[in-house]
Amino acid sequence: MRKQFFSLFSVLILFALVLSACGAPAAPAAQPATDGGPVVDEGQAATVVEAGELVPPVVAEACEGEACFCQDKTVTVIVNTAGEKGPISGPFYEVRDEFQAATGATLEIVEVPFAEHFPKLLTDMTTGTGQYDTSIAGAWWLGDLVGGDYILPLDEYYSDTTGKYPAWDIEDVQQGPRNLLTYDNKLYMVGNDHDGQVMYYRSDLFADPAHQAAFKEQYGYDLKVPDTMQEFRDAAEYFNGKDLNGDSTPDNGLTMHLKVGGQGMFHFMSFAAPFVIGPDNPNLFWFDPATMEPLMGSPGHVRAMETLIDLVQFGPEAMMGWSLGESWDHFLRGQAALTFTWGDLGALAQQEGSQVKGKTGAAPMPGTTEYYDIAAGEWKQTEAPNKVGNTTGGSWAGVISKFSDAPDCTYYLLALMANPAKSEVYAYRGWDGVDPGRFSHYLEPNGTNTIDGYLAAGWDAADAEAYTNAYFENFGAEMQFPYLRIPGTFEYWTALDIHLSEAATGQRSASDALAATVEDFNAITDRLGRDQQREIYIKSLGLE
Amino acid sequence: MNAAEAPTLRKTDRTKFFFILPAVVWIVVFTLFPLLYALYTSFFSFRFGRINQFVGGTNFIRLFTDDNLHNGLRVTLVFVAITVALQMLLGFSLALLLNREMRGKNVLRALMVLPLFATPVAMGYLGITLFYEINGPINALLGALGWGAVPWLSNPFWATVAIMVIDVWQWTPFVFLVSLAALQGLPADLFEAAEVDGASSWQSFRQLTLPLMTPILWLILLLRLVEAFKVFDIPTSLTLGGPGRATEVYSLFTYRTALRFFDHGYASTQGFLLLLIVSLIVALIFRQLRTVYQEEGN
Amino acid sequence: MRRKTSPVQLILTGGVMAFALLWVLFPFYWALVNSIKQPADTFRPGAWVPFWQFQPTLEHWIAELSILETRHALLNSTVIALGAATLSVLLGTTAAYALARFRFGKKGNANLTTWFISQRILPPVVVVIPFFLIMRQLQLLDNVFALMLLNATFTLPFPVIILSQMIRELPKELEEAAYVDGATVFQGFLQVVLPLLLPGLVATWIICMAFSWNEFLLALSLTTKSAIPMPVIIAGAEHTRGVQFWYVGVRVLLTMLPPIVFALLAQRYIIRGLTLGAVKG
Asked: How large is the ipTM?
């Protein structure tokens, strides 16, 4: 016994020694600037802005005495786990001191993993505890949050003109993302992040004459930024297996993130939109409004799924186990030629560690040449590529709990972060996860900003232009992917997420996966009440 | 201790209840009462996290028609069968091999305790880094041995293997430690007599070790089965049940039903099904076990 | 076993032992190494040995420990584990004494023992749903006290079974002598049995503490903010921005060290505990 203890303690002491040895300050050895991959050459690294260097201006003045209307109050925000320097959660840590000084309140930040966020929030609300004053929520939760009467309409706060709250302008938000802030004509979310997926491509590779010649040789047409899904596929196939970043190892045609619980279902939505939505079918993607029968098994959906699954072969196999971060990093290391994802990537490409600064083009999602008109039950051809804009994603923005004991202080916090001067900096930066979608983010003539702001923030001019134009076009597109916001959407989309993963990993065929999705959707609808669901769905389509 | 040696302490009948009742009441309050409450909720449907309406036996009927539930059951049964079999085999073999006087055995035994108490959910997250497919340590080692990269977390089959590897890592030491302790408790004179009679190692293993160890092995099997059916932490943290539902074990599915989708009534019925299955298995094996616990508590 | 060991066998067993050790220890080493790596070294192939292949840093440890929420979670875990273990041992010791020293009908003792053991059979997911609903009703969600009570329930079989065996091994004559001197049953229990039981008590307490510390499902289901313990905090190391290897390393070690140290301290009783008393170890 004693002997054992001795050996155990020697192990522990060794452990402690190793630890204390590491306490010695590490020599500032030349560190590779990336999360892996080859070292970035110094010339490039020098121009790259480090996370945290660019800070939004302080816009709220510190209060004194009476003016501190939140003295002794605590505002608790629940947000997806990402840490002090992570997407969506980071800005809250950054603004904490300013907010506290301006109102006298204390700000508490609770981080929970993406998959646990909605359940935790709903739990808190069903108990009426009100531990969370605000959730930086996904827009697809509004059906449940409003339906359960759990969150406050914010119109009164927004239209308050006494100067009590920081000002922000909802008209500045482009129409697509603006629609997500309101529900039933009432304002429920304070503008923050504006999500939508666009296509990113390596502009250096597409401009390379050698690649252009080889591509034409192989496919019989010029290599260009893909306009259709077929061209996207050809480009992904062409670049797959070639060395794209000069490290002499083969890289991938594209990258995606398809881990269950890693928000992969958004990939399917952005991708499937032009297969189903078209001029004659602007609205119907999810359910038949007459019966609430799911439409996910339609020929349009099936072809979209088959096409998407076919693309999987041009990406790394590991992406089936990836969340967004890993997939972004793959592109940022120069290991993929194409991807389609949110605004974070375009901004991250400008940051320290990126190997694709100045090489990251962006364009709206490619279209199709025909789409399946669900009402007519037939495929319809289009002359120009059928492109559909989207607001897929969370558009993570603050909602205020009905059970909050400090709703005014909470609104102050959200409005402070929605302030244009702050929002502008959020849009410039990649790490904070707050993505562009306001006219004040776009370059003239689309919006009111100029390239100077982006350049000062360390952007490559061409990248910034392509990026902001892509988002302006995406959110402004005539046809928009119908975002779902009925009760149970979290559950519907989780089912889609799981079945997408099954199809991507070959456990089911595309049509089987969608048939299973239909089955799950029906079970959810029946459980939540088909008639009640139908009523809300019809209302959400504006068909009343 | 047998009945003939029953306690002869001077005692009043009431005193003994003072001693036993707190624990009994405690367990009744914290397990029986919740189980009854679960039975009650299983007759209701929920909406927005609140009881919505009485649905009769609907939730019980769903048990038979829900493919996703059946998938959870299948995944769990496969997981239990393979991990427990591997743990028994590896743990017992290791114990047989190291059941001799040798240096370093005590250190080994002490270190073998570590995995048993390593927080399972922590092992799941650590697993994400261990099984990382591009340049992760396991694939790097396999690469050095000339193998290709294994798609540990992106392939349904390998993801299942990955959660099993962690469970086997964690619990093989348990089988080893218990078997070793039991082996060392076997009567030495029997083996010496067998050796004098010229029995080979194999013969004394077949005719002495194995029969003597059988009850203990049944016990280990039972304990491992019971714990293995509870599996939740590792798949939840390592794969979140994916890819698809390839690693969505029963408890994870039930957890999701209840605390992700707030279908508490149906989740309760799922719980009862699991309890029924585990109880049946325990009842079957417990018969084999009488001898081990026979001396207890008479 | 009692035969002479041939050199081949020696090499074989040595090799197996070495492999077993590596197998058991590698994950801990990997967690440690990751926790002291710069993010840039994380994905660099061949960065396995600190100082030689990469320059270690303590920055992640400092960063992690400076996070208020992590410190709070460590405190919560400690409170829950200590509280649950203490409750469990308190309740368990008296029950163990009753089972060891008194008779409850003809088969009562055996049945009671089996009933206590059967608590370990109940899959936690079966009761977590009613727990959740009841705690919600009682406004006890997100309360360390609630977690303490529940963990005490699930660890209760350990002290009952382990300690009842130990008490049986103590000579009854000691108590009987005390009774002759005029002690009551309670006094006999407190003054004679408990002191002799002390090492076993401490060991069982430690085992219960380790189990309560490691518990995840209840903690995940029943906490929302202020009662969150370490196993739930760990989940935060998988970010929107990808898996942060360095934080995984730090958090995994922070979480695992206490139960492992506990377990090593109670090593002598672990086999008896984990087999619910069937194997003495």
From this structure: 0.89
